[in-house]
Amino acid sequence: MIPLWNKRFSLRPRSGTNFHRKPQGLSLESVFSIHDTRTIANDYTFCINSRKCQIDSHSVKPGLRGNKVLVETRLNGQVKALWFLLGLENCVRLMEDSPMSLVE
């Protein structure tokens, strides 16, 4: 069945030049991660996989409360939190005071 489809729908390229672009300026770890959006609560917390995370007080910025944070879960299990493309990875911790596995 597949040879029939290949014969029917395949085309030869007009040019032998490779037109694939290099991933310059893209983080492939970010592209291939699971993206979730979470809302930051009034106490500067948000939940990831039923775990409550808090933003450190020295990293609190105006407009952070009630806003959305983008949480990336990488293929290797690491988690990264982004707010308007500002990395919160160094200022987010679990409520149990254990360090969270976050990437830079």
Description of the molecule:
With 104 residues, the protein is mainly β. The chain has a domain of 67 residues. The strands form 2 sheets. A 4-stranded antiparallel sheet has the order 1-4-5-6, with no helix packed on it. A 3-stranded antiparallel sheet has the order 2-3-7, with no helix packed on it.
Feature tags:
disordered C terminus, mainly beta, elongated, three-stranded antiparallel sheet
**How many distinct beta strands?**
7
Overall geometry comes to: elongated
Please count the helical segments. Answer: 2
Query: Which residues form runs of ≥5 with pLDDT under 50?
Result: 97-104
Strand content: 25-35%
* Biggest sheet: strand arrangement: 1-4-5-6
Mean pLDDT: 79
Radius of gyration: 21 Å
Q: Distance between the terminal alpha carbons, to the nearest Å?
A: 48 Å
Q: Tell me the helix content.
A: 10-25%
What structural category characterises the helix and strand content?
mainly beta
| Largest sheet features | 4 strands, antiparallel
Please write the string of helix (H) and strand (E) elements.
HHEEEEEEE
